[in-house]
Specification:
Layout: E1 3-6, H1 9-18, E2 26-33, E3 37-41, H2 51-56, E4 63-64, H3 65-76, E5 84-90, H4 93-103, E6 112-121, E7 126-134, H5 142-157, E8 162-164
Antiparallel strand pairs: 1-7, 1-8, 2-3, 2-4, 2-5, 5-6, 6-7
Amino acid sequence: MTALQIADIGSFMKKFLLTDSFDRFLLLEGTVTTFNTFRIDGTLQRSYYPQEEQDLLTERNLSLWGEVRPFCLTLIRGKRTPLSFRFTLQLSASNTEKLLIQTGVGIPSEQVRGLLMNLKYDGHTLSCTTGTSLSVFTMDKKLDHAWDDMVQRYFRRQGIPFETV
């Protein structure tokens, strides 16, 4: 687990809300507090979709950030900044598999519940905390370190300045 403080909140928010930079991440949950508190459960409601669309959603149970982003933009956009927000994003199963292979981490992908990125804005600072969720207990921290490194490399590639806290 690594905690990163985002150095340029405005620049991050433009990338997060106005570009597709984070669109391939899954949304586990989110909360936006403006004049009300809006809670978002990223779990897909399959019965909402026609059968042919349900068949295309077989590999995931969560919404992509790109599917929810326009609604969040509507909540956050305006003359006033939100009082706070929190989003938990998760790396997709296919990208988790790629990370495991690339880094040589010896954990089977079916034991990885999620590689998480917790974004939290408190009205003044924006932080990103990484996390891993496994279905088994292990003292091996290779996956934690690989995920932490990947998030930091991703932020650098996206031009998102941060400091390790």
